[in-house]
Structure formats: structure tokens, C-alpha cells
Design a protein that fits this description.
heterodimer; A: mainly alpha; B: about 170 residues; alpha+beta; Beta Polymerase, domain 2; five-stranded mixed β-sheet; globular
Chain lengths: ~70, ~170
């Protein structure tokens, strides 16, 4: 049977981190919410990268760089 | 956000609204760890004379005059979209009237009590509401006796019992 790592300690630390966040002042929490919103906007701002037709063709033919 | 809260406090002082309280996600964040949320929900008790479909118009007019821009139902207060919701049943009205008075920076504001937040979440009953109820219970962020009392008073005790499996830690 496959042996999996014990993540109990990891989960305990995660729970402790959540408790620490919950204990912050309201002002500090709202500051974090703004930061989360910025992070969300940044992640959503990403444009999917599609290789151009030329590059794709070159790669298929084995003539692409790298 | 302090500027936002000052603007809302001014609405009370100027008689635009009778009372208000921060509700939903941002109020939950007061008790829990912070999580991402799209807007700040403010529940308001309107003055007795306000009624009908245009009941929020005086609020939006007032905020426009104060220089805040509105987009649909949201008001942009200091970069934070604010949704103003009139109290719509006895539970939300009680939640506003019995809200905690707290300080944000140097500004006094009002946040719904945890037991009211949970009762409203239970009443709304979306998956994310149940998930948040679970967070409150897991973090022991609610007084169970006060919660039982609110649930009983607003006819939600049975719904609570029936949905225990959704949010019991």
C-alpha cells in the first residue's frame, strides 16, 4: 500500500495561521482584503498566451528556436 | 475605507437614513480571518417616509452630491464598491438596530453581531453562506445561546436543525 506523508502538523500550522489572521484588528483585516483584491485583479489581468501561427509552424517543422 | 464609513455616518447625521450596519462578507471578516470579497454591503433602515421602488434614490442622489460616483446599484466609495441594501425583513432590521458599535481607525461604525450574520446567512442559504457558517462555528466566533435565541425569534430554528450537516465542523 502506498505510504502518504503525515500532514497533521501542516494542517495544524495552517489552522494556527487562520486563527492569527482572525485575531488581527478590523483595520488590518480590511487592508488584507484590499491586497487580496489587488492580487485577484492581477491574476485576472493575465492574457492567455497563444503561440502565433508562424511560431507554431516553425516548431512543428523543427526549426523553432530553443 | 475610513472615508467610506465617514460618508455613511454623514448620511445618518443628515437624516438621509435612520441607521445602518455593515453586513455580509465584510461584517464576517470582522469576526473571522480576511477573505476576498467584491464589495462592502451596508444595510440601512430608511426613514419611515421612504417607500416604493425608488426607495434608494435619495441615498444615491445624496452620495452623488457628495462627489461619489455610482455604477448601477454600486457606489464607488474610495475605490471600494458599496452595495446599499434596505432592511427587508424583521431579521435584517433587528440586525441593524442591535449592531455592535466599533471603531475603525478614528471613525465609529456599526457591524452586525455574529448571531445575526449567521441567521441571515442561514435564511439566504447559498452554498457560500453555509461555508461561512461553518467558518464561524469552527472558529467559535459566535455565542451559541445568543444564536439560538435569534433563530427562535425569527422562525429559523428548524431550518438550522435541518441543515446542520452542511456546516457542522
Amino acid at each position: 500500500m502506498k505510504k502518504y506523508p503525515d500532514v497533521t502538523e501542516l494542517l495544524k500550522r495552517k489552522a494556527a495561521h487562520r486563527r492569527a489572521l482572525a485575531a488581527l484588528t478590523f483595520e488590518e483585516k480590511i487592508e488584507l482584503v484590499f491586497r487580496l483584491q489587488e492580487r485577484r485583479r492581477f491574476m485576472k489581468s493575465g492574457v492567455p498566451v497563444k503561440p502565433s501561427g508562424k511560431t507554431r509552424k516553425a516548431k512543428v517543422n523543427g526549426r523553432g528556436k530553443g | 475605507m475610513e472615508k467610506t464609513l465617514k460618508a455613511i455616518n454623514r448620511m445618518v447625521a443628515d437624516g438621509v437614513i435612520e441607521q445602518y450596519s455593515i453586513g455580509r462578507a465584510v461584517a464576517a471578516i470582522y469576526y473571522l480571518e480576511p477573505f476576498d470579497t467584491a464589495n462592502l454591503d451596508i444595510f440601512v433602515v430608511l426613514r419611515a417616509a421612504d417607500e416604493g421602488l425608488m426607495l434608494l434614490t435619495p441615498i444615491y442622489d445624496y452620495l452623488s452630491r457628495q462627489g461619489f460616483s455610482t455604477e448601477g446599484e454600486l457606489v464607488d466609495l474610495e475605490g471600494l464598491p458599496v452595495q446599499i441594501l434596505p432592511v427587508f425583513n424583521p431579521l435584517t432590521e433587528e440586525a441593524v438596530r442591535k449592531a455592535h458599535q466599533i471603531k475603525f481607525g478614528r471613525t465609529v461604525t456599526r457591524v452586525m453581531r455574529a448571531e445575526h450574520l449567521l441567521a441571515i446567512m442561514l435564511d439566504t442559504g447559498r452554498p457560500k453562506d453555509y461555508a461561512r457558517i461553518a467558518m464561524f462555528l469552527e472558529q467559535k466566533a459566535v455565542n451559541r445561546r445568543a444564536l439560538a435565541s435569534v433563530l427562535k425569534r425569527h422562525g429559523l430554528a428548524r431550518k438550522w436543525e435541518e441543515n446542520q450537516h452542511r456546516f457542522h465542523p
